[in-house]
Amino acid sequence: MIDMSNAVARELAPTGVLRAAINLANFLLVTGAKENGEPTGVSPDLAASIAKALKVEISYVGFNRPGELADAVVHNTWDIGLIAAEPVRAQHIDFTAAYVEIEATYLVAGDSLIQEIKDVDQAGVRIAVAARSAYDLYLTRHLQHAELVRAEGLDESFDLFVREQLDALAGLKPRLLSDVERIENARILEGRFTAVQQAIGIPSGRPVGFAYLCEYVESAKASGLIAELITRHGVKGLSVAPPE
Question: Model-level pTM greater than 0.85?
């Protein structure tokens, strides 16, 4: 166990409280809230386990969008951030290896000519996507021909897809499994275009704390803690990430 005289605790919780940034929009990792408003789910519980190991209190800093969480790193409002690892975010954030993975794919109309994921990246294809989500950032880097049409949030991207009759809706597969039930004659493409890597981020320049977090994540996967958290919260669509 680590006390505040330790360099790890000083870097991870310099105020004596571990301020954990949580992406409240991720319905797989945040599944509810306590009476006092604190979030519950795999991510909040993992953050709490880190605080317990450090022998410090925890304070949750909630964000409604992942991009807002990433932006806030320069304002010193959080100590660790539970968010998908992406190169564009790594300018100011150091990321551990992933602790869970989430498949991302597309939803299309039932009569669409698009049959496979590789068919999506064509000129003239328009894809609805939640702006600055991990899969938006991935598609921005990798698509060569299709056009991304961004909306501010998951619900908004679904509404955009339906309202504008776009060619595809990009999203996390567990969310798309519920979205497909809301549209007559729609289907989800088999496979995935990426697996979103949910990791723990720390502001850059804290090497001792970062090394500790990297070891903690690997231990949490190997010990079965991550699997137990997934089971505890009854989450479908999450898988424990492989060892680093």
Answer: no
